[in-house]
Structure formats: C-alpha cells, structure tokens
Amino acid sequence: MDIRAIRERAFLNRAGLPAYSVLLLALILSAIAWYFAQRTVVAHERNHFNRAVTQTIIALNLRMEAYTTTLHGVAAIFAASENVTRREFRTFVETVDIERRHPSIHGVGLIRRVRAAERAGYLAAMRAEHGANPCGYPDVSVFPKEIRTEYYLIELVEPILVNRELFGRDVLTEPACLEAMERARDSGEPAVTAPVRVVRGDQERLALFMLMPLYVRGQALETVAGRRAAIEGFVFAQLLAEELFGGIFGKLENPRIDLEVFDGEIDTGRLLFDNDRVLHALHSAGNPHFTQTVDFEAGGRRWRLHFTSLKVFHDRWLATLPLAILLTGSALGVVLFRVNIAQSRHAHERQRHTTVLEYQATHDSLTRLVNRDYLYARLQVTFEQNDPRPRTSALLLIDLDRFKEINDTLGHQSGDRLLTDLGARLRPLLRPDDVLARLGGDEFGLLMQGIGDVHEARRTAERILDEIRRPFELDGISVQIDASIGIALYPEHGRDAVTLMRCADVAMYIAKRNNAGHALYDSTLDPHSPRRLTLLSEIARAVDGGELLLYYQPKVDMQHRRITGVEALARWDHPRSGLILPGEFIPQVETSPLVRNFTLWVIEAALTQCLRWHESAIPVQVAVNISARNLADSELPDRVAALIERHRASAGCLEMEITESALIADPERALAVLTRLHGLGVRLAIDDFGTGYSSLAFLKKLPISTLKIDSSFISGITEDDNDAVIVHSTIALAHNLGLTVVAEGVETTEQRDLLEIIGCDQAQGYLFCRPQPASKIDAFLRRGLPVH
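Above: the chain's sequence. Below: its structure in token form.
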C-alpha cells in the first residue's frame, strides 16, 4: 500500500471519530428522551385514571345523598299523618316523580310493625281498604306464612305493578333486611341492606334496600333502648345495583375503565356490579396498567370499588411514542432533537392551557376574584379537618344595594367597572388566609378562618361597609352605593358549606330588611330553621293532644268606650318549650296539610267559648283568622256550617278575619268561599288593611262588613302626618262603603284620642288589654273596660 493510500485511510479514521461521537450523543439523547417520555405518558394516564376514579366516588356520594333526601321526604308524610292511604301515597310518589328523577329507584314504600295479636285485625283493615279501591288488592296476605311474635310487613309500595311480589311480605324472613333494620332502628339513621336477589321480568337481579326508621311520635329516642321500644316501622327505597352503579359510571368522561363493586371484601360471591360484562372485549391481554381499590360507606354498609384500566384506556400512540423516539433517535439525532423539542412544546402548551382552564374554573373573569366553586371548596377543606375543637370561622355574605339602578342608568359597562373597583378596594382589608369571592351578580362572599370572636367579624363587616360607601367615579360621575352583610359562624351556625351559606343568606336578608348594614345569623328569625321544621312535625300531636289554647284580645267601641267583641289568637303550650307564640308556628301550619284541621279547631274552640259567655249574659262576638289556604278550600263553608249547627250557635256571633294578601292570591276562589260564608250569616272582616296593595274598589265587591287598619299605620299617626292622612282617608272611604273600621295596635292615649277625632269606630291594642286567656278576659267583659 503506498503512502497516498495510508494517508487517505488516516483521514477517513479522523473523520469517523466525530461521526461516532455524534452517534453516541444521539444514543444518549435518545435514551434520555425515551426515559422522560415514558414517565410523562405514565403520569398523564395515571392522572386521567385517578380523575375518573374521583369522579365516580363524587357521583356515587351525590347519588346516595339524593336517595337519602328522597327517603326523608317519604318519611315526612308518615310523620305528618298517622293514616296515609294507598291513594295518598301513590299521589305523593307520582308528584315527587321519583321514577324519572332517580331511575335506579324501582320502588319506595312502607314497612309496618305488626305484633302477632294485631295481625288478624291488621289484615282485615288492609283487605277492607283494598276491597273498596277498584285498583286495590283485596287478597293481600302475609308471606312467608310463618307464625311469629311480630311481623314487619310491606304495607305500601309504589309503583305497585312491578313490585307486586313485595306487597304483604314479612321482611323479617330476609336476613339481609333484618340486619339493616336493626342497625337503622338502633341508630335512627338510614341503613342499606346487603344485596337481595329480586325478579324483574324474566331476569333475576341484585337489589339493595335503603331503610329509614319510623318511631312512635312523642317517645323518648335519646337511647338505643328508647328507639327499640318506639319503633313502628320503616320507609324504604329499592335500588337495583346494576342501574345504581351503571347509571353513574356510564356517564363518566372516560368509561374505558372496568369497575367492579363488591359488598365488603373482594370476593366473586359478593360482586354487586361489573361493567366488564359489557366491556369484556376491552380487557388487555396481560396485567392491567392501573388499578385502584376504594372503600365507600353508604347507610352503614361498606362497598369496595375496584377500578381497572382497560386496553382501550391506554393510548396506543402515546404508549409506542417512547420506543419510536428511541429507535428513530438512534439513526437520526437531528430528528430526535426536533421531535423532542416538539413534544416539549406541545406538553408546555397543554399545561399552559390546563392552567388557564383551571384558573377560569375557579376565578371570576371580571373581578379576578375567586368564584363560588372555589369558596365552596375552601369551606369543605375547613369542615374536613375533623378537629374536636375547631377554630371559629366566619362567612360574610355581601349584597350590594341599588346596584341594578346603576346598571339601568349608566349601563352594564359602568356596573362592571364598579364591581372591578370594589374588588380592588376590599383586597387590602383581608388577612393572608381570608378568601374573598364573587358569588355572582352583585353578591360577594368572604371566608375568615380562625377569627378570635364574632366581634372581629363584625368589625371587618363595618370596614367593608365603609369602603363600599365611599363614592365611586364612573365615567366622570360620582356614584355612592350601600350594602347588606350577613354573618354566619362555623361551627356554631353550620358544619357544612350549604348550611353555612344558607345561614349567611338569611342573616343578609335580616340586615337588608332592618336596614342595619350587617347582621349575625339568628335562628329565631330564620323561617326555615330546624326548630320550626321540628315544630311542624309536632303540631299534629298538639291539635289532638290539647296543647293548643286560645287567648283573646278585646275590641273597644270608641264612642261608648265598651267592649264589642274579641279576637281569638292561638297559643301553643309546648310540653318542653313552654308557651309558643303564633309567629313561630302559624306560618308553618299555613303551608302544610294541617291548616284545615288547625283552622277548624280554632273555630270550634272560639264558638264554644262564645256560647259560654252568651250563657253568662255576656253578648260578645268572637273573631278568628283564616289564611289563603283556607280560602282555597271549597269545603270550608260546609264545615263551618256543621260546627255552627252542632253547637246550636248563632252565625252572627262569629267573625272571620282575612288578610289582603290572602284575597289577592286567588280573588275568584276567595270571593266564592266568602260569599258562601256570608250566606251562613258569618260576619267577614279584612285584616291588616294597607299592607297587601289592594284597593277599596276591589274590596267593595266582597261581602265584608269590617275593615281593620294595620298597626304599622296606627303607630305613626301622632308623629307622621302622612300616616295620619292615610288613616283618615281610609276611614272616610270605608264609611262611604258602609264598613266598620277597626284600628289595630293602639298603644297610647294620644293615638286613641286622634282616632276618636277622625271617626274610627273601634280600636284594639295594648292600651286597652293584651291578649289573655278566657278566664282573665271574663273580668273585663263583666265589669267593662276601664276608661283611659
């Protein structure tokens, strides 16, 4: 080989060194890229899998909460009435529309406790009821036919056609139901049974029963022994396992996951649901990539949810991408570099997009404050700390006053500018851990965690009001607004986000109504407080148990200074709470089915007392109040006529007072009922006139004889010329229509004297006499009212 050839080979060897270096560098870069790509793919799919699992648990939890709420509604009708007929129960189920709202509920019903000695009479009553119903089942019987000391029989079930085999069944013979019944009975909480096989059509399917105990009203339930002694039955909902879990899992964002639900431990014999029956072809050939097992508690029953990723869950392109990068990078370093850059850029863009979406999901786009969802999430974190002595926190609900006027006058652009400026003003007032959120419209929420006491929340509310009241400059115009703030405390007023937000909302409306700027939640002013709900469930017992009584307040003739009649006012002598005034329980009664029986009780008690006075030579007229619900009851005149006839009373001794708002609710039906009452001889009066926005032109169409002016006008007639003019004009116009005028709420001699001057016929109020029991009113009626 000549020297030229040797030099050429040496040159090639020197040129090959950089090539090998580039190849080695390409292999190293390819390996690094493969490693990070593999981790990214796995992390992405793991997050996707975990999100699907979380969504399933949240959806299942919401579904079970909805079922529990539905069951509470079913229990409420049995708590409100001792005898619910099948027709009433079916009407309730159809009205609530349980089948459409909860497709996995295939039946709701009542389980009645029947002792052996009661069995024959119970079956006779059931057969009689169903025999009188064309759609009934007069052949109802107890099955299985075992002789027992007591039975728990399915007395009602809807829809009845698909659940006919449950009707009359003794659930004590079903071990799964027995265990859950004992658990619900002893705890007083809803309980879910072990799976039970039921027949639907020609198929046998797994069902779960959710049971809620019913106790004898008035019994002590503080102890397990007390609850066992007071149990009288259960309400239940029948859930088909396949539709319960399938209805939830089938709506998920990514259904490419196999869900198996087991009752307790993972065992094929305890399988409740497996969507692999539908997706069995999607299983991967080898071991699953991702699995997760989650325990879920429902009604004291533990379900074990086992999630497994299916073959189609894993993106084949993403799975092969790391290997493709490795192979391609080994041959083409430059291509590997560009692919890696492209992947990094794509991942960064996706992350940036995700960050933007997460920000938009938790923040208000206008004010840049966090939104309602974020605030609820922070509240939930506070409630989940499980601290036995939790720190006091405050939720302030801020609602702007006159904001709509700004939008209507200056335009929505100015309104948006005001909201933006307001957020900027309030931020400096916050502590590091405080959360200020825009809840929507002109409503804001402030969460203050770990406050010292309620005074700190009040001071913050006052500082917020000071900032809000400072003028805003909008397009060269100085605008001043105000706000109302409601304050609710954790844990005093609520231990969950919904309850705390509701209490703050109630407090906000109290502040707005009282023009107080801010107000702390007060359960006594809450029309929907748990105490009022409890009172409603006890009012039926009060009517039947003699706990209700009537107080009477005299009405005084202004010219002769003598008593012409009395108004009957209901009171409740509660066995635990003492004397309860009507403002606490009458609003609940008027919106419930109890309003008819309650009103008839008041009328009969008033008639009875009126007859006693007449027999004692005291000719006095008694007035009772009736509500809008009473005016919608076409049977009211007939029932009043029956009471008058039974007591052999004169219809003229009874007067019925109706508020303006009750008349305006349904004028035509109200006119028909009032006309029939007038035809009986009952006198009619309009109560609280001036507060319902009706007119004398409307009232002249009604068969009324008396008009009562509301106390809100009487209280100011000696100080406010406008109130005096209104009262004077009302009296003059009423007299022109031939009506007697009664002034309510007279408390001072100055008010009485002015009313006498302007021609008021009668007066009623604390100046003359407070409402008193009949025994104390007798003295007034016998000796005459002292002259003031």
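The chain has 27 helices and 28 strands.
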